[in-house]
Amino acid sequence: MLNRFSTVTDITQTLQSQGFSTFLPQVDAPGLVYNGPSTVSNLKNQAGNDSLLQTHCISKCPPNDSHDQLGSTSHMFVPEVPSPSVCFPSTSLQCYIHTYPLRFPSQLHIPGQLKQYYLLNAASLLPVLALKVRDGEKILDLCSAPGGKALVIMQCATPELLCCNEPDPHRQKRLAKTLESFLPQSVTNRVILSAQDGRYFGHSEVGKYDKVLVDAPCSNDRSWLYSQNNQQGEQRLKERAKLPALQAQLLKSALSAVRPGGVVVYSTCTLSSSENYSVVKTVLKECPEAEPEDLWEELAVSTSKYFTFFNSGGHTLHDWPLLQQNIMSCNHHRLGILVVPQPGKTWGPMFLSRIKKKQ
């Protein structure tokens, strides 16, 4: 993922020379491309020697006056050049992928210097694309660490506020370092870190956000299951069976935090139906104000060239004729869509569901 806040001409040329191709349709949007120096000197000066977004940027989310403030295997690159498309009307994400698994070296964190690119699984883009973020919105990333999807949000648009919530101190430190590595000071005044328990976040911030992303901890999330704190890691492993209940609590909290008319995107990186469709079903039954939105036409069909999607009949779908034949009569996908890794399309797994809060 190329960083629109950094100079990326050399990286773009390198990608093209190595056979990478763009993933999403783009148009020129020069007003949203950052041409300034690839440094975060102001942030470094504020943060001191540590230079991380730490206590001075960690606040209750949103702050009292936030509504008045502006505040692996295969890899994919997402250069940040916004451009409209049929799926993403207000912004677009320029992406590069390769037909074969290739490794690019990860860039080291250097305080005061912005990284040029971020490596991620291509399927990780889909929850943010489903969110359809726009300039000026208030966005909550409820389970934000390690920060990849928060970066994609900031590459897609310039929100009025992006609250990145992460209660675990070790994971929050990693999140802060990620944000510092990619965002200049001119943008970080729109981003705040929160350390609230995500299950109860919506109780204190009712209806404050336009859109909420719940990239929930799941049974395939090694970064959540294996904490740097050994005691906490062992406890999490014991609690794997309780994950669906935790996920449902997080989703209900998100629905409380989003305003009427706003949307919540729930996502996991597991194939487990009990953590995907069943969680969505449970929450829809308990929350009459929640209404699922069908992502099949919007995302599955439009990206079927790159991803393999799973349907309730147990089939994996590789091209549009099969999608049309096997899926159009099935309502199960209204609850969400699931990317499954396949030979030649190794992205995923990734489940996502978009839920609108009724007016």
UniProtKB/TrEMBL annotation:
A GO MF label: RNA binding
What residues form the catalytic site here?
Answer: C269 (nucleophile)
Asked if the Swiss-Prot or TrEMBL record annotates the protein with the keyword RNA-binding, the reply is yes
| Entries under CDD domains matching the protein | AdoMet_MTases
Q: Which annotated residues bind S-adenosyl-L-methionine?
A: C143, S144, A145, P146, G147, G148, K149, E166, D197, D215
Presence of keyword Methyltransferase: yes
Q: Which domain of life is it from?
A: Eukaryota
Q: Which InterPro entries match?
A: MeTrfase_RsmB-F_NOP2_cat, MeTrfase_RsmB-F_NOP2_dom, RCMT, SAM-dependent_MTases_sf
What are the protein's UniProt keywords? Answer: Methyltransferase, RNA-binding, S-adenosyl-L-methionine, Transferase
| A Gene Ontology term for the protein's cellular component | mitochondrial large ribosomal subunit
Domain SAM-dependent MTase RsmB/NOP-type span(s) in chain numbering: 44-358
Q: Name the Gene Ontology biological process terms.
A: rRNA methylation
The UniProt entry's sequence similarity note says:
Belongs to the class I-like SAM-binding methyltransferase superfamily. RsmB/NOP family.
Any idea what this protein is called?
A: SAM-dependent MTase RsmB/NOP-type domain-containing protein
User: Which species is the source of this protein?
Assistant: Takifugu bimaculatus
